[in-house]
């Protein structure tokens, strides 16, 4: 169950990271409210997952999911560069996430 909470927390982190772009400096009320709600939910679920998972693993996976997801959506939604080195390091982050899961003992 902790891993499911952690994955959902990571997906919510992607949501609030992308949401920051749409808040336009927290000047747009609806995107701001949704971004803040996503932040709170993401952190709350991370906290719940960290009750049973090692904090280094939980935090690393949470950050990794958020970073890779935000980078992918940045490419898709905001035409950010999809260079070979950038994609390579995104793949390395996914490998690191899988590695943390595989070695966590949970």
Keywords:
cell membrane; transmembrane helix; 4 helices; 0% strand; 81% helix; mainly alpha; flat; 106 residues
Give a short synopsis of this structure.
The protein is about 80% helix and about 0% strand. The chain has about 110 residues and is mostly helical.
Structure description:
Belongs to the drug/metabolite transporter (DMT) superfamily. Small multidrug resistance (SMR) (TC 2.A.7.1) family. It is a multi-pass membrane protein. One of its GO terms (molecular function) is transmembrane transporter activity. The chain crosses the membrane at residues 33-50, 57-78, 84-103. This protein is mostly helical. It has one domain (2-102). It has 4 helices and no strands. The chain has helices at 2-23, 29-49, 55-78, 84-102. α1 packs antiparallel against α2, α1 packs parallel to α3 and α3 runs antiparallel to α4. The termini are close together. The mean pLDDT is 96.
């Amino acid at each position: 169950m902790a891993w499911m909470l952690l994955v959902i927390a990571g997906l919510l982190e992607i949501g609030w990271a992308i949401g920051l772009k749409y808040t336009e400096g927290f000047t747009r009320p609806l995107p701001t409210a949704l971004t803040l709600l996503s932040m709170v939910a993401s952190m709350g679920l991370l906290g719940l997952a960290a009750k049973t998972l090692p904090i280094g693993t939980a935090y690393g996976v949470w950050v990794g999911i958020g970073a890779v997801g935000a980078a992918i959506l940045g490419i898709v939604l905001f035409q950010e560069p999809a260079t070979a080195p950038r994609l390579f390091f995104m793949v390395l982050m996914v490998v690191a996430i899988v590695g943390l899961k595989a070695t966590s003992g949970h």
